[in-house]
Amino acid sequence: MRAAVLSSTKHIEIDPHYPEPPINSADVKLKVNFTGICGSDLHCFVLGEQMTRIPSVMGHEFCAEVVEMGSEAQGLKVGDRVAGLVYPSCGTCSYCLDGDYTLCDNLGRKMFERNGSFAEYISVPARQLVRIAPQTPAEEAALIEPLSVAVHAVRRAAISIGDIVVVMGGGPLGLLITQLVKLSGAAKVILIEPAENRRHLGSKFGADAAISPDETLGEQVRDLTGRRGVDAVFEVSGNPRAFDAACRLVDKLGKLILVAVYESRQIEFNPNRLLNGEIDLLACFWSRQIDFRRAADLIASRQIDVRPLISGKVSLDQMQQVFEKLAADRGSHSKVLVACS
Questions:
Q1: Into how many domains does the chain fold?
Q2: Which of 12, 160, 263, 334 has the fewest CB atoms within 10 Å, i.e. is most exposed?
Q3: What is the enclosing helix (H) or strand (E) of 221?
Q4: Are residues 39 and 111 in the same domain?
Q5: Beta strand 209-211 with 129-131: parallel, antiparallel or unpaired?
Q6: CATH no. for residue 233?
Q7: Is residue 288 one of the residues assigned to a domain?
Q8: In 37-132, where do the E strands start and end?
Q9: Are 123 and 69 within 8 A, CB to CB?
C-alpha cells in the first residue's frame, strides 16, 4: 500500500510498497478516506525523534471504511464508515476496561506497532471506533477526532451557565472549544490569537471578542469582561508565554485547562499564583469513547459545523510541500485534509 513515511526530521517520503498493517482477531481493517493534519503531526515533523519514532507513519484524525473484520471483532460490519482512536490499546488494563483507551497503560509501547492514518490502510481494535452517520460527508467526518478532544476538554472543565471564558489559541482545536463553550452556556467567550484570519474565523465560531496578544492583554480582557474576573482559561496554543498569560488571566477559584502539546517541555511559572488563588489546574489528554460518540453526533446534527475549518485538501504526494508550508506559517491554514486513497 502507499503510505507517507516520516523518514527523518522535516522529511516525508511516499513509500508505494509499505506493508499493510496486521489484523488481529479483535481488529478491523480500514481503508482511509481522509486524514487531517494535526498540530501534533507538525510537532513530530519539526522535532523528529524528540517527539516520535523515526521512521514512522503519522496521522490519527481519520475517517475510514471497514473492509475486513477480525474473527472476534464486534459491533461493526464491512462497509461501515468509522472514526476513532488509531493507536491500538491493550484492552486489558484498568483504563481500557473502563473505555479510557487513550490512557491505556500500554499505549506508549503499542502505538508504534502499526502505522498511523497517513496511509491507504490501517487496522484498529473495533472497540475504539464509532460509526459515522450516513448524512455526514467524509471530509467533515475527519474532524470527529479533533472535535472529540474539544468535547473532552469542555466536559472536564464543567463550564457553567454564565461563565466568562478565555480561549488561548485560535487553531482548529481552539475554535472548536470556543463553539462548544458557547453551546455550554458561557456568557462571554474571548478568543486570544495573533493571526488575523483565525481571529476573524473565531467570530463565526461564537467568540464574543477575538483579540491579539500583546503587552496590554490583561487590560484588554478586563475591559471586555466589565472588570469581572475570568472563570476559566483554556490554553490551546502550546506557547509557553500563553501559559504564563493564562495563569495571570484566570480569576481566584477559577480553572486553567491545558489542552496543548508543548514543543518546549519545560515551562517556568509561579505555582504560588495557582495556590494562592485556589485555581484548579486541569490537564486534558486526548478523549474518551463517550467524547468520540458525542463528537460524531454533534457533526451529524450540524450543532457544530466544521466546514469553515477545512482550508484545503491535498494528496499523499503533496504532504512534504504542505508540511513545510504549515511549519513555516502555522497561522496560515485551519485544517488541511489529506486524501489517502
A1: 2
A2: 160
A3: helix 217-224
A4: yes
A5: unpaired
A6: 3.40.50.720
A7: no
A8: 61-69, 81-84, 121-125, 129-131
A9: no
